Hints:
Blueprint: H1 2-22, E1 45-53, E2 62-70, E3 73-79, E4 89-93, E5 98-101, E6 103-108, H2 117-129, E7 132-137, H3 142-154, E8 161-169, H4 180-186, E9 198-200, H5 208-217, E10 222-225, H6 231-243, E11 247-251, H7 259-265, E12 269-271, H8 290-300, H9 306-318, E13 321-323, H10 326-329, H11 340-361, H12 380-389, H13 395-401, H14 404-410, E14 427-430, E15 444-449, E16 452-455, H15 470-478, E17 485-487, H16 496-502, E18 507-514, E19 517-525, E20 541-544, H17 547-560, H18 592-596, E21 610-611, H19 619-624, H20 648-662, H21 666-678, H22 691-694, E22 713-714, H23 718-721, E23 723-725, H24 727-741, H25 751-757, E24 775-777, E25 784-791, E26 794-801, E27 807-812, H26 817-832, E28 840-842, H27 852-855, E29 857-860, E30 866-872, E31 875-879, E32 885-890, E33 895-897, E34 905-910, E35 916-923, E36 926-932
Helix pairs in contact: 6-7, 7-9, 8-11, 12-13, 15-26, 17-20, 17-21
Amino acid sequence: MNHRILQVLITQTVLFSLFILLFAPPQLAYTTANQLPPFQIINEKIALTNVTLIDGYGGKPRPMTTLIVSGGRIADIFMTGSRTIPSNARIMDLSGKFVIPGLIDTHVHLKSINRPPEIISAVLRNVLMGGVTSVRDMGGNGLQLAKLAADAKNGTAVSPRIYYSTLITGPDSNFWLEDEKGRFVSGEKAPPGTTAWFRHLTAADTDLVRVISEAKAYGATGIKIHSGTSGMLLKQLTEEARRQGLKVWSHGVLIPGKPSDAVNAGVEVLTHADMLAFEGLSSLSKDSKYSELAFQGANTTPVESAVITNLLRNMKKHRTIFEPTLFIMTPQQEPPASDQNWQRFKVRLDHAYRVTRRANEMGIEIAAGTDAIGGSSPNLHAELQLLVKKSGLTPLEAITAATHTGAKVIGIEKDYGTLEVGKVADLVILTENPAEDIRNTQTVEAVMQGGKIYKREQPIRTPPLAEPPVSTRIRNVENGLLPAVVIKGKKNEMSLAERIRFYKTPAVSIAVVNNGRIEWAKGYGNLEAGGNQLVTPVTLFQAGSISKPVAAVTALQLVEKGKLNLDDDVNLKLKSWKVPENEFTKDKKVTVRGLVTHSAGLTVHGFDGYAASENPPTLLQILNGEKPANSPPIRVDFAPGSKERYSGGGYTVLQQLLLDTTRKSFPDLTRENIFQKIGMTRTTYASLLPKTLAGQAASGHRGDGGVLPGKWHIYPEMAAASLWSTPSDLARFVIELQNSYAGQSDGILSKDMTQQMLTRQNKSIANSDAGLGIFLKGSPEPFRFSHNGSTEGFCAIMVGFLKTGQGAVVMTNSDNGAELTTEILRSIAKEYGWDDMKPDEIAIVEANPTVYEKYVGRYKFPSGLEFIVTSENGRLFVARTNGWRAELLPESETSYFVVMPTAPRLVFVKNERDEFNEVVFKRGGREEIGQRLK
């Protein structure tokens, strides 16, 4: 349809423009010793050893496999070591690598618009280097396509093999007949629709034998039946094409023909998932607006309807291959929900995703075609991701769609599409396993096409709609740490390695949640400064106050069981100890809701813990502030519910409440009701770690990098601070809350309770972000929940997003870790496109260093704060008497800021005598005026 070609044109024009700006041809050469020149035909035997083979049929990956390639074909495949490698074979050890068949894009348009030859050449080269060894062109300038195909075949171009079609439209179509594109496709010497490669059949044009013969003579592999056809004409075209040995491919809707008309006529491939919804429309007219018909079809004919079910069954019966082309339909950026056109289009899009899923589930073969080949990288990688993420194919099924099934579509399965003895050696060498994660089809290290090897020197640029491989994301996060304030136009990114050294933090552990699962987890550094035991994803860290949301969930479970009430006086259930009554509790009582939202009026912000060698106090001694407790008594000192004040003391009261209610130890209670249920196998509230875990725990460190005496403190204030865990286990907690919020899990809480937990509670308190045990961000609806934590020698942070299935947990073993964790989170946010946690960007200006001397001096503020401003080598600095020092960067001649959180500013004020004796200190929305001391 015209709208689809226009969509292709727009997509490819953008990509090609980017290509012109960004593309730099990589150097191509590959062997283990890198001895082959670019593009060398391999006439000798090659042994690819120790590789994991994915055959293209959908079978399980076969590790430790050797492929022998000879004369451009696969001569042998066997388990490494089970046979002797021929003595004349060049050995390429591919240990740890993966091999898949060369990918096939079954729907491209290379010459449907006039592009410069050098652009087409570069695109084809880039597509081949991206792992696509064959393509099927579905409509374009036949003379130019024939030339491109010949160049690819004879080796004069670095290009995928090109197979092309003759486009045939019927009497009721005006497709490409009245626009510039049709004139380009037909060529200068022929009216649109009169060539061997673009044929518009009129009512009088009945010599189908000649039409098909001319298509075959021009080199077409098959015919593409387009609009304006139905009934008898469809059947006649299909039969004649098959008689003459050509494949028959069809649009999903042929107007007036429907998808079932094409299937019944015996076409081999049906294209475009969104078009299957047309099956439910009573009639189709060429004068109807396509988008409106498409919406009506999707809106009135559910995927589960009898109409669609019968169509899919008929496709299965006739062995019709289905090519959904999801890429061309999917917008690169989702429009706002308020966009009514988008809401209507989304109905079509969702129908296309779901009908593809159902077709696959019913056993219909799926082929992978993009309808837009791509510019600097193949869009086929995005199509594969859409097939998996949106339509439920497994990674192996998606690979089969782009290999074996793709070869069947074109009719070349005898020689291509799978890795087996006798097939042409078209294969892709990957550094990571695509059977585990479809994104890994982008980890192309080298491509072999007919025995010719091309090596990539740079990673593939991620195409539109695709996510990069996890390895790329990890690398980007590791090298993209950002401060709270960045300078516009400057390189602000920092590496994790350099920031670990800067903060004197021996160990960092990270887990990232994406698409509702742990996408990756990785440890960095050593368990202890000066040691050699490396951190791994299972290394334990103290989580500090992240203990609180886990404890809150334990309390909410008891609320759901009717054993506690969120708004009852906790003294009704407390047995071992009672909250002391005073003038503040006369009218308002301490409640569970108040305890978990820091609004109960209770004292004690946090706890210092106790050295492992000390005799720790009991919980009752902590509550009463009795020795050996090192914290004051926990008491109410303002009216409950009147304001919020962070209180670890409140969670210590909660701990006693849970013990009195259940008569279980706190570690046992949480293990049975949370950790065991959601697979948090490396998490415990035990303040004294058992020996089996102590050797796997990171040691805490002071800000100077020294090891905390005793390695860590113990915290009998368990609900407030004693949790030991790993980022991966806490990520499982994040995922469980996300799934429960969406009604997809009730492992630890019901949907209703989780939604209440993740809703702001104290709406009468200004600027309150407290949920039930967690802090919320976003307005009007919270979209992020988070909690950080710190104990002596440890800092951590946990973040999750309510509806996107994203989040992260970062844990460190240093008092300096708080700032490092937020720098890491900003890098993760940038890499994963979070709408939050972006640094503030400030532009600096050129200031005249000669004015700096006017600002030099010592300034004192009413609060007692003092700053010392100095000028050194044309730069301005500010220092405090405690030794802190930073550079002042100019945003105007009188206003200067420091690159740190909240971007504190000093604004120098000139008096009537042109002197600068005052400075305004601005930070966090507050201002204070300081005077220069004489």
